Amino acid sequence: MEQAYVNLTVERQIGIITFYHPSANAMPGYLLSRLAQTITKAGEDDRIRVVVLQSEGRTFCAGASFDELLALKNHEQAVDFFMGFARVINAMREAPKFILAKVQGKAVGGGVGLIAGADYAIASEKAAVKLSELSIGIGPYVIGPAVKRKIGIAAFSELSIDATTWHTAFWAKEKSLYAKVLPSLNQLNEAIDFLADKLLKYDPVATARLKQDLWDGTENWPVLLAEKAEISARLVMQEYAKSFLSKFKKT
Predict the structure, then answer these.
(1) Which distant-in-sequence residues (6+ apart) come within 8 Å of 61 by Cβ?
(2) Which of 158, 163, 232, 243 has its C-alpha lying 20 to 30 A from 43's C-alpha?
(3) What's the pLDDT at 249?
(4) How much is the pTM?
(5) In the prediction, which pLDDT does 246 show?
(6) Which residue positions in the chain have pLDDT lower than 50?
């Protein structure tokens, strides 16, 4: 099986963060840790003015790794796992540079949280989204603040309550999760490159200040997301979630 990774490359002052996992870019804890560290590193790198977040393969991100959820032995392990998503979102929030998400395919659960944590997301027509957490006995608690901030409480309610339904990329654009939806991968790549090059021409002090202003009111998120991780951890250790994950593993 191919190895999972998170890579950072720098091209023309653009920091390109690419993540991959052979299970449709599902996110186990170690990969979340690497992603958070890489985002922080890109934010601190003076060579980088703009960050692009992307993944390999057909799926953007399948969210939490079901294998790892099933393997959790106790509450402490569960908290640490869900804190992985909290750390990634806070790293995106705290990075002083704009993060552009290039979304080539479907996103589930935590993958939607990654998109919402970006400052600007452009997607392909294949980039449908789903928050499946409620259907497995938990809920989109850790990523909830980021998703609600981006699409509003009404759209978040629709997405999280109708937990087994895929919502199209055009639905996601209508709700402001995506800024643009494009018909081909080539056009998606061109649009990301064009926007990143445009941002390079802007004053870095002004862009950093605007980034800070856009995240105004989220200063309590380190505490808030930790509280949400506790809720998720309690639920994932209960029988409903364990039973669902066991049945899913056997299929």
Answers:
(1) 19, 24, 25, 26, 27, 55, 107, 108, 110, 111, 114
(2) 232
(3) 63
(4) 0.96
(5) 82
(6) 1
